[in-house]
Amino acid sequence: MKLTDSIQFLKGVGPKSVARYQGLGIFTVQDLLLYFPFRYDDFAAKSVFELIDGEKTTIVGRVVTPANVSYYGARRNRLTFKIKQGEAVVSVSFFNQPYLQDKVVMDAEIAIYGKWDAKKLSITGMKILGQVENGFQPVYHVMQGVKQSSLVALIQTAFDNGCGELIEENLPDFLLQKYRLVARKIAVHAMHFPVDEEAHRQALRRMKFEELFYFQLKLQALRLKEKAVTQGLVIKFDDKKVAEKISELPYHLTKAQESSLGEILADMASPYHMNRLLQGDVGSGKTAVASLAMYAAVTAGFQAALMVPTEILANQHFESLQQLFPELRVAVLTSGMKVAERREVLGCLENGEVQMITGTHALIQEAVNYQRLGLVITDEQHRFGVNQRKIFREKGQNPDVLMMTATPIPRTLAITAFGDMDVSVIDELPAGRQPITTRWVKHEQLMPQILPWVADEVVKGAQVYFISPLIEESEVMDLKNATELFGELQDFFGLSAQIALLHGKMKNAEKDQIMADFKAKKYDVLVSTTVIEVGVNVPNATIMVIMDADRFGLSQLHQLRGRVGRGEKKSYTILVANPKSDTGKRRMQIMTETQNGFVLAEEDLKMRGSGEIFGTRQSGIPEFSVADIVNDYPILEVARQEAVAIFADEYLGDRAEFQMILANLGVVDIYD
Ligand SMILES: Nc1ncnc2c1ncn2[C@@H]1O[C@H](COP(=O)(O)OP(=O)(O)OP(=O)(O)O)[C@@H](O)[C@H]1O
């Protein structure tokens, strides 16, 4: 038998079960052996003196009273009896399982799995265990038609047929020794049938290492391949002009901005393909760095493009680029544009008149052709697919690509998701920024306390955002909420403040007009749905009020809060929320405690898991079968170092172990 054989060749597997097992992703014997339990229940019997109140456990004792079933209510009943363990007498009850009565035999030993109540010296039973030799039992994800016990039996059959012996080692010897990892054969067996907890721990450690190591190898291989295969552009920018531009800025670049820009420019000048992520907290000045990189590309005779997720942002960047570079021809391209305007822009892009362009994903549509595209910067990269580069290549352009993100990515995730990328981090805010004061208030405080205070601040010249509650997946409800809030605020402020409403259903031109007017201080208060979440830059706005703030995730709240505190004036964020859940409360608490996006992102990750923050599929973060990127971070880091070392070590190239690794990876042609 081979590992690649279908499980149908195993004894006891008929066509029907083959189909069912396929539903679990099990096709071959190998799939079966690598289908690991997701947890283990500890059924090992314990002495009643070591038990903790509320703990789920197994107790073994001798039955000392007959089992009695008492009925109460229409269908409910309780089975009770007593057992003796040493001198201790323990009361046992089972709810609604009267049929267990037969299994309770006077004077016989019995093992009961259930929940321990220390005060009453009693256990609420969940099941009566047949035998208690091995207390450590695996639990698998199964589905209808496949029982735990049949799955276990099938795995046992596979081992009985010697399939376990066919499992080949896929880690090099020196790593097994260095990290004292158990052999693959042993680990796979122990994942299913551990003799004890320690055996299981060792098996798991080995399988996690293997999974993360291969993952990192793949990233390293990709990275190498990318560097070797794709001929990047050499963008010979004009040093002097760039320096001049920097000196003309109304502010000094922060150290972090300077070094990030330096890294980006070095990539551009090199013949390699830039594959870099620019990460920085909200308001840290990423866009400023990006603009300078674009300028550098233009001084070398290339075009540069900046791609952003919303039209509001595209227009905002268009304006600021025009302001920064009045001597250049800057354009904007969005899908909401008039046909004639669009045609004009497309023509000038193709003939090279337009030197810099910003826009939404309209920038990469088919009809768009560039004359000499040198640099593409994408904002909020996780909102775009990862395929942009391919699209550009298909257009015959091979620009350097820089991705920016304002969602701070915890280091753990950055390594996992972007392990094949170079990363620049802007980890300081421009000088002169004051911390944003964040307060959490209840709904009932809004009218008597918050609104009068906001009114006072408006009189003093403050501009204010009000974010209406988020109703997931319902634009209609979002709109209703925003409109209601708008009405209430109009009633409250009367003529004392100019209020505008902005929501996702508006026409783009209308949205742009409102944003422009808000920037120009024609409005004091902007009521909005979350359409202003990312990137909006109105430095004079200093107050952000978020209604039903507990409905937002931490990262989103952080983004929203980042809309204030963008100038030198003191800024405030008010979270209005009466959270019902503990998570909601915790979120509000954390928001008032820290303004550090990286800390918040770590917390968010702990509270929600990685998938929700980035949407696993989009972000390219794979789903691991045994490893967990948050909790297994130390293993991930070691695996990464080893993967990097392997590819860096030329001597390894000739060794059989290295060939084996490459073959397993399916990337034998790295050096071709
Ligand atoms: N070094 C600096 N000193 C002072 N102000 C700066 C500096 N760099 C940028 N700014 C200003 O700070 C504000 C925020 O900068 P920018 O829009 O580049 O940040 P960002 O990181 O892109 O923000 P976000 O991620 O929130 O969209 C802008 O008004 C910008 O002009």
From TrEMBL:
InterPro entries: ATP-dep_DNA_helicase_RecG, DEAD/DEAH_box_helicase_dom, Helicase_ATP-bd, Helicase_C-like, NA-bd_OB-fold, P-loop_NTPase, RecG/Mfd, RecG_dom3_C. One of its GO terms (biological process) is DNA repair. It is an enzyme of class 5 (isomerase). Transmembrane segments: none annotated. GO terms for molecular function: 3'-5' DNA helicase activity; ATP binding; DNA binding; hydrolase activity. The keyword Glycosyltransferase does not apply. Residues 446-606 form the Helicase C-terminal domain. Residues 267-426 form the Helicase ATP-binding domain. The keyword Hydrolase applies. It holds the Pfam family Helicase_C. Keywords: ATP-binding, DNA damage, DNA recombination, DNA repair, DNA-binding, Helicase, Hydrolase, Isomerase, Nucleotide-binding. It comes from the Bacteria. Its EC number is 5.6.2.4. It catalyses: ATP + H2O = ADP + phosphate + H(+); Couples ATP hydrolysis with the unwinding of duplex DNA by translocating in the 3'-5' direction. PANTHER family: ATP-DEPENDENT DNA HELICASE HOMOLOG RECG, CHLOROPLASTIC. Plays a critical role in recombination and DNA repair. Helps process Holliday junction intermediates to mature products by catalyzing branch migration. Has replication fork regression activity, unwinds stalled or blocked replication forks to make a HJ that can be resolved. Has a DNA unwinding activity characteristic of a DNA helicase with 3'-5' polarity. Belongs to the helicase family. RecG subfamily. This is ATP-dependent DNA helicase RecG. It comes from Pseudolactococcus hodotermopsidis.
